[in-house]
Amino acid sequence: MNTQTWLYLKSANDPCLFTVGFYNPRGEWEPESDHAKSEDAANRVAFLNGNHIKNPGDVAFYRMHDDLLKSVGLAVDLLSRINTAFYVQGTTKALRPVMAETKPLLARLREAL
Asked: What proportions of the chain, in percent to the nearest 5, are helix, strand and coil?
């Protein structure tokens, strides 16, 4: 079982270099990855220490997931409006303005997927 604590160090020679790693039991530094931004290094440390949402890839995934949920919500709303226009008003003419909104919505759904 891996029990070391991951951390990052700022380079003494390069102000734009942050190295993620840990100290082994002998007190020697074991580097894992280098980053240009302290935020990226901190996210990597959080990920390695068990906070998996801080992994930059996971953050991007959750943003995409939220965008997809919003798009699905818009699709459900649009379908409800189509249903109302067709069945309540009883004419396909009422569908034209609602159907005009489907192309941009479908494009957003494709992007989210």
From this structure: 60, 15, 25
Please give the pLDDT value at position 50.
77
Polymer length of the chain: 113
Classify 27 as helix, strand or coil: coil
In this prediction, residues 97-112 reach a mean pLDDT of 67
Q: DSSP per residue over 65-107, as a string?
A: HHHHHHHHHHHHHHHHHHHIIIIIT--GGGHHHHHTTHHHHHH
Give the per-residue pLDDT at 33: 92
**Cα separation of 43 and 59, whole Å?**
10
Tokens 């951390």, located at residue:
7
Q: How confident is the model at residue 52 (pLDDT cuts 50, 70, 90)?
A: low
Taking the whole predicted model, whether its pTM rises above 0.85 is answered as no
